UniProtKB/TrEMBL annotation:
Keywords: Hydrolase, Magnesium. This is NUDIX domain-containing protein. It comes from Kribbella amoyensis. The keyword Hydrolase applies. Its cofactor is Mg(2+). Residues 1-141 form the Nudix hydrolase domain. It holds the Pfam family NUDIX. Gene3D superfamilies: Nucleoside Triphosphate Pyrophosphohydrolase. Belongs to the Nudix hydrolase family. It comes from the Bacteria. InterPro entries: Nudix_hydrolase (IPR020476), NUDIX_hydrolase-like_dom_sf (IPR015797), NUDIX_hydrolase_CS (IPR020084), NUDIX_hydrolase_dom (IPR000086). GO terms for molecular function: hydrolase activity. The keyword Hydrolase applies.
Length: 158
């Protein structure tokens, strides 16, 4: 059974997205990925987003997010496979310096930084970014008015 998760596209006033820099403890492979995580029993999508933003970045006031994407995905971490169903929310926020408040044990050992990225930088980077093609997806979303029409798009596997 797939774990339900929320992923946050946290965009600052200059359309930069906040990504987490982490390393898989088993493979030592580095990657960048957006804020987010599992939805706890009884939580709404927005409540889970606010909790994850606070835990992973210290952000205390998260405006409601606009649903933009969803995907079913399988990933490997620390030698294990995880099936997830992700719901993606777009949140417009002011840029801030992330300061995690409640990381899990695994996160404390794998997360070692944050960065605000422009779509063009994500397209050009040779570093591993999840989901693949995030820069292009952001460009497409910007061209559509950042999801202002309220449509959700299914992301491909990756």
């Amino acid at each position: 059974m797939a774990r339900h998760a929320v992923k946050l596209l946290l965009l600052d006033e200059n359309d930069r997205v906040l990504l987490i820099h982490a390393k898989d403890p088993q493979t030592q492979a580095e990657c960048w990925y957006p804020v987010g995580g599992g939805i706890e029993p009884g939580e709404t999508l927005q409540e889970a987003a606010a909790r994850e933003a606070y835990e992973e970045t210290g952000l205390t006031e998260l405006p409601p997010g606009l649903p933009i994407w969803h995907r079913d995905h399988t990933y490997e971490y620390d030698g294990r496979k995880f099936d997830v169903h992700e719901e993606w929310l777009l949140h417009r926020i002011e840029r801030f310096d992330p300061r995690p408040t409640q990381l899990s044990e695994a996160e404390r050992h794998s997360i070692f930084g944050f960065r605000w990225w422009r779509a063009e930088e994500l397209i050009e980077t040779t570093e591993t970014v999840f989901p693949p093609g995030l820069g292009q997806l952001m460009g497409e979303l910007a061209g559509e008015g950042w999801g202002d029409d309220g449509r959700r798009t299914e992301l491909g596997e990756g």
